[in-house]
């Protein structure tokens, strides 16, 4: 059954979810400011100069009685899943006029946005960051990435040589910016699941709208080969992103960070990266080192078939081409996007309609499918958690190969 929003004013049949018209942009701004208690004059430059500003990627809910009462923004991106880059629509700025809250408007808006993602916007995957996870679970979102932060004294970092070749890029240093972007582009294939493709708009957001963020890069006898994005206060150094093309660049950047004046270090990274760099080995003194892992981004698949198709050539075809096995994916609940309940058979050649009568299948809910697709858990773990069933052990083994655990992680500069 479709989710039925509560209402005390107006009627759901009189509600409409759509993109705002150009003459409604100012009204959208006022809804955001009223909902989040922001000053309109302070928020207007940020709203208008956002590199992602695009009315076609905003959604509003209108009622006959009250006009525009709620809005949200879809932030376009591509997210890494295995070896594939999947079109992604981030959900941000979900806002309802204070006097119209708790009437079901936000829920209706989210459902309409999901249908838009699966339809005209063509983003099969969506995600959001929230401190209200139980609310968004009602609409199929579930945690599918992890935040991993190492905390230790800064003095624990080794003072490797090469720091003299590291410098901080000035805000308007276009040459340095191009060097950094080249390093990041070269590192795309090494980025973890959950990472976002960093286009020029995202770099513009990092430089212009993240106060306090600094970017240091390593360059010696040629182009830059590594960079670190960080923030610092007298007491704390927070490393948000770290890329080195080789061990020389990595060690030089670590040596540079070790010379900063803060007392404490917070290093955000996938756990596998912290272990590869050996950061957990450098605890010193009486202060303990800790690694905190928490769920981070909630993910929701808006279009199961399109998500599987986008991942097929890079992730599924190489696994199935040798064995010629197939696996049918059955999403058994999605009241908002019912087409997602159509079984889909994955073959080495592509996708085709499947059936619950197929020999090899897995079945799970839409929220669990988002976790499986991104690699938050593999299929065997999800079966052990009671979130997935399989037709037989061989089907489960095939699902583990197609959807392995990937330690998904979103760096702070990519948050929206």
Protein described:
- Strands 1-2-3-4-5-14-6 form a seven-stranded mixed sheet.
- The protein folds into three domains: 12-123, 3-Layer(aba) Sandwich (Aminopeptidase); 148-295, 3-Layer(aba) Sandwich (Aminopeptidase); 299-402, Nonspecific Lipid-transfer Protein, Chain A.
- The chain has twelve helices and 19 strands.
- The radius of gyration is 23 Å and the shape is globular.
- A hairpin with a 4-residue loop joins β9 (214-219) and β10.
- It is α+β, with helices and mostly antiparallel strands.
- The model is unreliable at 1-11 (pLDDT under 50).
Give the topology, please.
Layout (H helix, E strand, L loop, with lengths): L14 E4 L6 H12 L3 H10 L8 E6 L3 E15 L2 E13 L8 H14 L6 E4 L4 H5 L4 E2 L2 E8 L12 E3 L5 H13 L13 H10 L4 E6 L4 E9 L3 E9 L2 H12 L5 E5 L2 H7 L12 E6 L2 E4 L2 H20 L3 E5 L12 E3 L4 E3 L7 E4 L1 H9 L4 H6 L3 E3 L2 H10 L14
Parallel strand pairs: 4-5, 11-12, 15-18
Antiparallel strand pairs: 1-2, 2-3, 3-4, 5-14, 6-14, 7-12, 7-13, 8-9, 9-10, 10-11, 15-16, 16-17, 18-19
């Amino acid at each position: 059954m479709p989710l039925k929003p509560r209402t005390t004013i107006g009627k759901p049949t009189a509600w409409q979810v759509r993109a705002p018209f150009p003459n409604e942009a100012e009204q959208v701004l006022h809804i955001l400011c009223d909902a989040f208690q922001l000053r309109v004059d302070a928020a207007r430059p940020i709203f208008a100069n956002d590199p992602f500003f695009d009315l076609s990627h905003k959604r509003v809910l209108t009622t006959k009685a009250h006009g525009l009462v709620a809005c949200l923004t879809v932030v376009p991106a591509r997210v890494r899943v295995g070896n594939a880059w999947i079109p992604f629509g981030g959900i941000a700025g979900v806002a309802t006029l204070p006097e119209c809250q708790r009437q079901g408007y936000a829920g209706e808006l989210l459902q309409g946005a999901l249908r838009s993602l699966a339809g005209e916007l063509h983003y099969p995957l969506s995600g959001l960051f929230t401190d209200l996870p139980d609310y968004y679970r009602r609409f199929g979102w579930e945690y599918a990435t992890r935040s991993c932060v190492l905390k230790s004294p800064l003095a624990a970092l080794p003072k490797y040589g090469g720091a003299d070749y590291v410098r901080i890029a000035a805000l308007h240093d276009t040459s340095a910016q191009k060097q950094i972007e080249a390093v990041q582009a070269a590192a795309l294939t090494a980025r973890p699941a959950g990472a976002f493709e960093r286009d020029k708009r995202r770099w513009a957001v990092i430089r212009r709208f993240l106060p306090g963020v600094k970017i240091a890069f390593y360059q010696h006898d040629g182009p830059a080969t590594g960079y670190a994005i960080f923030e610092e206060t007298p007491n704390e150094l927070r490393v948000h992103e770290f890329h080195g093309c080789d061990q020389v660049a990595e060690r030089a950047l670590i040596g540079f960070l070790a010379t900063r004046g803060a007392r404490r270090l917070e290093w955000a990274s996938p756990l596998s990266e912290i272990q590869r760099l050996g950061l957990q080995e450098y605890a010193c003194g009486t202060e303990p080192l800790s690694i905190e892992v928490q769920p981070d981004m909630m993910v929701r698949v808006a279009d199961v078939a399109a998500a599987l198709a986008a991942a097929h050539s890079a992730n599924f075809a190489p696994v199935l081409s040798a064995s010629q096995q197939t696996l049918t994916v059955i999403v058994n609940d999605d009241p908002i996007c019912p087409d997602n309940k159509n079984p889909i058979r994955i073959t080495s050649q592509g996708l085709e309609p499947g059936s619950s009568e197929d020999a090899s299948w897995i079945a799970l809910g839409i929220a669990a499918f988002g976790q499986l697709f991104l690699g938050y858990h593999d299929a065997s773990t999800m079966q052990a958690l009671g979130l997935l069933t399989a037709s037989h052990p061989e089907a489960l083994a095939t699902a583990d190969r197609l959807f392995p655990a990937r330690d998904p992680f979103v760096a702070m500069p990519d948050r929206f």
